[in-house]
Amino acid sequence: MKLIIPAFAFVTFAGTALATGPAQQQVPWRPAANNQFSTLNSVVALARFGGNETGEIAEGTGTIIGKYQSGNDAWICILTADHVVRGNPIFLNVQFGDVGSAPAGVPNQNLNVTFGADGNGKYLQRSGEDLGLLGVRLGSIVGDDPATSARRQFFERLTPVAVDAVAADDLITTRRNFSNVGYGGTGTFTATGMQAITNNNAAPFQLTIDSKKRFQNNRFERLVGVSDTRYTYSGVQADFNMPAVAGFLASEGAVFGGDSGSPLFQATTTTQQVDAITRPGGNNWEGGDMSLYSNALVAVMTRANTRPNLGDATSRDNPFNTTTMTAIPITGVRADWINEWCAYVPSPATAAIFGLAGLSATRRRRIAM
User: Helices (H), strands (E): how many in the chain?
Assistant: First the structure.
């Protein structure tokens, strides 16, 4: 028997991964255009139940970067941070769209993933780094019954995000601007930074997780070396500054204690309607279309700002420790690893069959900025 836990149940757990703020900058499910979904629809929520050292529940974000057919079955390949899936989960839930607004044509908004010989999921970590690939079998797309037809139509409309190999140095020189899209909690602007939205008004705070997709725009500031007991890799960091000018960075935000595995985009520019935002000290947003990038995944978020769940009553409204908002850039070596293994993760037996030919959405490429 498959255990079903709806995504809206996640909101009761404190200390889980958070998403980008501010609260108004939501990215709802986008209808298909020219029979294809927006690449922003390929950003999905992930929730792990059990596994790792503590048996904890963990939430994060992933990005669909490939799709394949093996026999009658459809598979998708999801890029995320390793610590979101690390260990041996009881099961993982993949959420498409936002809770409470099931996207049209999605046969199962919340897909449960199990691992092992009889499971519908396979996972592979990039050795020593906080980066991994998740393969998920959606089910059969061959047949004419309504459920199969709906699944096939959804699969055909999915648009995987292109992974773009980039030199890390370029991200702090010629390619600094990015858009970050993720799920979870959020915050509102204050004079000193951004106040986390919580379920209560006293420490220790319980973060409100509403499972809605949001975005922030920002820019890379510096390269850093990340080394701890589990991971060692070169990372790139961004700061949170109160927006001082109109334009792209008017939608600058932050990530709280998580948003793990969320994509950082460059290249294709699109717009998203955003409600009015009042910012202490001026620089208000009157409401309207904000610009954001929506393709060319150049980095994956791995570390975020301090989350306000401790006993410090000031931690709910803090200026943020900007030295912890870190992403892992998709350098050429990492892009090659993704390209090589994305097909293998869904189905090892099909790797030779596909010969990586199905990786058109994830091939290493340079995109002019």
Answer: 5, 16
